[in-house]
């Protein structure tokens, strides 16, 4: 049974819109994703997809791939446009539950972990998750003050990598201290030339890497708590690197084959 | 003498707005930049700044740093908002001449050069120019189909690096052939695992590196014309890297100290 919704004033449409905001995520413990690329990835990854809202054409096209128990809604182009974060919406959306079970603690993890300290820009956050996936990292920890991982722009730039690596919120001070107690080095990132050149670090299988806020860098407290802080030598006259580019350079260097 | 402009219907305001578009750049051979960070950088770099439009407060604050012969205009907040590409405009703008002398040809260049093949996203383009600067590249060549370097979003993400490295438009096929004739290797970038692992390349002082379109990668013709094509091994399940991140990883690897 597919329910048809034709009015943008419909309560479900309003709730779905709300599921693109931080407040909505906190209230309903659900978030909205858009486009078949990401909806399909979520289904393939066994994510708790509970509702699908799509145009008639999209419902028909992807019907065979939907999970059995998912609620389906047919929407029109006007509603698709209302829900969409893009200029030309594809016309397919899914509601996914946010499970508390997604929470990861630092006392049992292994492999490489990326820690985000107050990163603001959604594109930077999503790109770093995507790069962490590509560089073979196990997961990404969202510290306090880092923007939510359930907003449309972050989701779009993650390109499905949120289903390949573990994502969790966490207290970065606790993460740093616990990893260090477990003999896993934690690298900070600095612009400071007193920090260590990133190319001189010996590769490790298990470690943490912290990237800091776009304008201010890492917090002073975290900087003091790391095993060591790394910097990327700047050759030209640029004052700094974009944080997602710096994260990419560091992740591929630190996690290349041992 | 400072002319005061109070109406957003004023012809100068309309022209300045036009200078944020590709059509405007072609018609007037000028472009508009915004914010003291970039206006100040342009002046310091000796760029041909011909007009400054700013609020009374901004004019007063930066007066000492203006070039002698620059035309000055006082504008109000409403005009600043109209001209601005940001949510909270700083209230200072400059008109800069686009000089034909900026054109660079491949038959005399040395050092590392980044070649952009049909890159679409303004943020990616700007970030690559900023990273090229930081990685010690000499310049960036904008191939046909790559978005204009004079639009507000590209300018904002370049963060002043356009005044530190040489930027030019160029025919990439001509660049590749001329560099190769001059014994400078030209590296393509590919997702193809049949390409060469980027970490196995020996550093060179003089070379070209091509980055391709976000969705389609480099054109097949260019791919066939390069000295060799490189790929970054993907370890996780990500399908690809963001092009600006990939460019960062490649540029810092290829241009690290010999």
UniProtKB/TrEMBL annotation, chains A, B:
Keywords: Methyltransferase, Transferase. The keyword Methyltransferase applies. It comes from the Bacteria. One of its GO terms (molecular function) is RNA methyltransferase activity. It holds the Pfam family SpoU_methylase. PANTHER family: RRNA METHYLTRANSFERASE 3 (PTHR43191), RRNA METHYLTRANSFERASE 3, MITOCHONDRIAL (PTHR43191:SF2). This is rRNA methylase. It comes from Secundilactobacillus similis DSM 23365 = JCM 2765.
